[in-house]
Amino acid sequence: MSVTQLEALAVQTEQTKALVRRFFDACNRRDFAEIFDCFHPDIVHYSRLSEYPKEGIAHAYEATFGAFPDLTWTIVDIIAEGDRVATLVSIQGTHHGDYLGKSATGKRMRIWSVDIGRVKDGRFIEHRGVLDELHLLAQIGVVPETYLAQMS
User: Fold this and answer.
1) In total, how many domains does the chain have?
2) In this predicted model, what pLDDT tens digit does every residue of 8-18 receive, in sequence order?
3) In terms of DSSP bridges, do strands 84-94 and 72-81 run parallel, antiparallel, or are they unpaired?
4) If DSSP codes are grouped into helix, strand and coil, which group holds residue 107?
5) Where are the extended beta strands (E) located within the chain?
6) What is the model's pTM?
7) Fewest CB within 10 angstroms: 34, 49, 104, 129, which?
8) CA nearest neighbour of 26 among 58, 93, 68, 72
9) What is the distance between the alpha carbons of residues 50 and 53, in angstroms, rounded to a whole number?
């Protein structure tokens, strides 16, 4: 790579990291317009073994904020190169609404998320995420804590 190419890659990398910070800041402020402005119109979110478009992402946020209205994301680490980024995030909140059939418990939860994305035109075009849902479910009483001990 030439010096010019390396400089362009460094600039793109910093822009990618800035998008991640902007996105999680918007999540913490519940600024849905800005959250969705971070998504490219053709974004595809891959979760588990399936994928879904932007409309599915909106539904997931609505359901999650309904169940955990005080939810906050804290970026622990960002690793990026060019248009690719991986982020480790700590997520915490209080279970104040229905979540996956479990009524509000008032219990606090704290879990981890690993998000891997690709950026196009300054917005996320791809997202793959691994959320520690098993520990979330245990913390709000859906799954017994003893089950987690057997899983580790």
Assistant:
1) 1
2) 999 999 999 99
3) antiparallel
4) coil
5) 39-47, 50-52, 72-81, 84-94, 108-120, 123-131
6) 0.88
7) 49
8) 72
9) 11
